[in-house]
Amino acid sequence: MEYSFRQAQQVDASQIWEILARAIQRRKEDGSNQWQDGYPNPSAIKADIEKRNGYVLIDGDTIVGYCAILINDEPEYAKLIGKWLTEGDFVVYHRVAISENYLGKGLAQKMLLHIEDFARQHNIYSVKADTNFDNLGMLNIFEKLGYTYCGEVFFRGAPRKAFEKVLAH
Where in the numbering of this chain does the N-acetyltransferase domain appear (predicted)? Predict the structure, then answer.
């Protein structure tokens, strides 16, 4: 199965929101407080797309995954309680979600590899991300893909585990 990765368009917003809404529900069913405070929401998706930060993983015409990718744009990362592996430019991603119908196919990993390609295309060799302490799926993916735990960051008052992966040049 060949999946493609591209920048999201406004026309994709409702499909993207459907995927995120189900992911929010799954986090709740898993007993997590991640994404249970009204964020992310449709206006966050709209803003991602307007700022050209939204990206989708596609199977034919179907959007199967979503994430926001930013360069050097996460103020909370400057307040890390811990230590990053590198000091320079970095790519950060947020709001990673895979469609309910495509779970268990390794697509989150595939999307993260596309994000690494995005970083290399911009001559950036550091990828940073964070997740909730109880998001075992994402923690597992970070481990599989060679991320290093660097410490804690806080979003809307809640602590998150922060990770970095240094990419080969």
Answer: 3-169
